[in-house]
Amino acid sequence: MRLLDSDVTTKDVLGWQGLHLIHFQGSACSQKTRIFLSLKGIDWQSHHLDLSRQQNYKPWFLGVNPRGLVPVLIHDGAVHIESNDIMIYLEEKFPQPPLLPAEQHSDILDALRAEDDLHLNLRALTMRFVIPKFLAQKKPYALSAYEQSNGSVQGNADSLKNIELAFWQDFAKHGVTDQQVKESAQAFKQTYSLLEQQLEQYPYLTGGGFSVLDIAWFIYTERLTAAGYPFQRLHPKVFAWYQSLAARPEFRKEVKAPAFLRLATAVMQTVQRIKGTTFEQVARL
Ligand SMILES: N[C@@H](CCC(=O)N[C@@H](CS)C(=O)NCC(=O)O)C(=O)O
Questions:
Q1: How does strand 156-157 pair with strand 78-81?
Q2: Are residues 181 and 128 in contact, defined by beta-carbon separation less than 8 angstroms?
Q3: Cα(200) to centroid of ligand 1, in Å?
Q4: Of 55, 87, 116, 189, which one has the greatest count of Cβ atoms within 10 A?
Q5: From start to end of the chain, where are the E strands?
Q6: Which residue out of 70, 109, 141 has the highest number of ligand 1 atoms within 8 Å of its CB and is therefore the one to mutate?
Q7: What is the atom index within ligand 1 of the atom nearest the CA of 86?
């Protein structure tokens, strides 16, 4: 989605020439776009935004993306948000190697929308099983800065902002509940059962060659694996597909978590094992 210049109140970015990505190392959506750029061999300039320090709620960034989310692509002064839209846009500008085959264009766009609809489910499982709450929780002043900001997205008040706010306000109150875990896990199980059927017939998710859909679902699968989702048991073809992509350097290098986070996750999951509250024990798939 391209923002209007009038949505962008941090005017200096409108003068940025070339390709710039504002992203966070550990953000799933940022990883997705970085893998895409890497597979295309596109040069880009990196602007790292630290979500763990809530830099996404600072006025500078809210003036770039009023939605307060990464990644953001700036190409010759045009500001693009939403990771899937960014990949689709880049595919038009950099068609080689093709990652969005013309014959499957509209099916892939539908499938990407369905993937994006599960993003909050992915976030819920991440915040319960991958990132300890003390690291994930938003500071009240940062959240209220976000709440009070009144930027527009394509000229209108952002309809997604209240959903974002509600997620983090609920998270501050009660973390991610068992009910949220069960619902999110079930939603993924349904979708992965369909992907499993696809992979029983074809090497990649579209039924054609490798595409952006494989990149998008690789990222979800990587994160859910870290959370403890039992791919090998429930969806063996998905597991094998994921392993083969994870072995590729373009994929592996973008999803490597920093050592401190791996340690924090390991400690949290050990405590969960002792308490009987691991992903498997709560989700009961
Ligand atoms: N639908 C959006 C979702 C973007 C999104 O939720 N980004 C997350 C990181 S993966 C983010 O910026 N979160 C802000 C935060 O954690 O405060 C996309 O695909 O770009």
A1: unpaired
A2: yes
A3: 31
A4: 87
A5: 19-23, 45-48, 72-75, 78-81, 152-153, 156-157
A6: 70
A7: 20
**Cβ(142)–Cβ(172) below 8 Å:** no
- Ligand 1 in reach of 158 Cβ (< 6 A): no
Cβ atoms 128, 178 nearer than 8 A: no
Domain spans of the chain? 5-102, 106-283
Distance of CA 84 to the CA centre of its chain: 9
Rg (CA), the chain: 19
Distance CA 135, CA 7 (A): 31
196 lines ligand 1 (CB under 6 A): no
For 138, the token pair is 């938003």
Mean pLDDT in order along the chain per 10 residues (285 residues)? 98 98 97 98 97 95 97 98 98 96 93 97 98 94 94 94 95 97 98 97 92 98 98 98 97 94 96 98 97
Q: d(Cα 243, Cα 180) in Å, to the nearest integer? A: 28
Q: Round to whole Å and give the CA distance between 206 and 195.
A: 9
Q: Which CATH class is domain 5-102?
A: alpha beta
